[in-house]
Amino acid sequence: MSIKIAGTGSYIPERILTNADLEKMVDTNDEWIRTRTGISERHLAAPDQVTSDLGAEACRKALEAAGVDASEVGAVIVATCTPDYTFPSTAANIHRKLQLNKAFCFDLSAACCGFLSVLETACGIMMANKKYRYVLAVGAEKLSTIVNWDDRSTCILFGDGAGAVLLENVDDGDNTGLIASDMNTDGNWSEILKLPGGGSVNPPSERTIAEHLHGIHMQGQETFKLAVNAIVSACRTVESEAGISIRDDVKLVIPHQANIRIIQAVAKRLDITDEQVIVNINRYGNTSAASIAICFDEAVRTGRLQRGDLALLASFGSGLVWGAQLIRY
Ligand SMILES: CC(C)(COP(=O)(O)OP(=O)(O)OC[C@H]1O[C@@H](n2cnc3c(N)ncnc32)[C@H](O)[C@@H]1OP(=O)(O)O)[C@@H](O)C(=O)NCCC(=O)NCCS
């Protein structure tokens, strides 16, 4: 039994916010942002576009690419830290918008590691007993709603977008899908990257608004240092478990797009070439749970990933949660 990636899709909202635009909003400049992060611009959803709209559009494209009708989808899992509501789930809203009438739908919260967590859940658990033939794995974010636009150290980093892959249970024995994975959490680091307001610790109040607790809080340097080591370690674990060489056997490494310097440091430590790494952070910034799904779709649509190729997905984010997954496309 194999799991095939039957189709991929992504959606990037139209409006572009450039570094020059940010110069007018906070005390920053294009050169600082580009050299420290690799970001030139990011896209922002329109005021009336919500996370499920972005996710639904990515799903629609994935279904179209696979030639599969919405009525055939058995489940939808959405990774997001910017859901439409706390409940109902964003996945349920996508169910309504695309009329996925047979689909069991739920959201999953693992911040920037959300899309890998969806794949782990879908491939490792839900599809393992063949109950579901088609599962939509989605990462969708409207991060512009949780960015503190007065905080220059974080507002420059994030953007909106969504990506989706349609997973299919197949019998053809091609050994495609999730080959090996290494997923981890260390809750002891939960303070360095969080959205403090709105949950049971700090329910919404005048105080939480006055103290900007509904925006992203991040210790950037600490996060940076932990990210590189964690991603490399997960990649090496997957490499040894799968019995492959990342440098020689993996066509494309698809890292979470948080900072170009993190990506370059990881690439150097993995001893891989520039052609082996996909980078689009310059155009989209950090789209959290959506970033790897968007990259995956771009890799497929630009031909950088062909049927049979090995892709190594690697991510890191709040929790802390980090991991790597080897996928045969
Ligand atoms: C956020 C990040 C880009 C900051 O870069 P950095 O090199 O660590 O910068 P620092 O925080 O040390 O700040 C250096 C200086 O730049 C200033 N600065 C911060 N943001 C700035 C901005 N947008 N424009 C200009 N200057 C800025 C700081 O105030 C500081 O000034 P000081 O030296 O006078 O105090 C970087 O730490 C990072 O990307 N970390 C990882 C974040 C991440 O990946 N998060 C998501 C994980 S999923």
Describe the structure using short key phrases.
329 residues; alpha/beta; Peroxisomal Thiolase, Chain A, domain 1; four-stranded mixed β-sheet; 12 helices; 34% helix; globular; binds coenzyme A
Short description:
This protein has 329 residues and is α/β, with parallel strands linked by helices. Helices cover 34% and strands 24% of the residues.
Write the layout of secondary structure elements.
Layout: E1 2-11, E2 15-18, H1 19-23, H2 30-37, E3 41-44, H3 51-66, E4 75-79, H4 90-98, E5 104-108, H5 114-126, E6 134-141, H6 152-155, E7 161-170, E8 177-185, E9 193-194, H7 206-210, E10 217-218, H8 220-242, H9 246-249, E11 252-255, H10 260-270, H11 281-284, H12 291-301, E12 310-317, E13 321-328
Parallel strand pairs: 4-5, 4-6, 11-12
Antiparallel strand pairs: 1-7, 2-3, 6-7, 8-13, 9-10, 12-13
Helix pairs in contact: 3-4, 8-10
Bound molecules: coenzyme A.
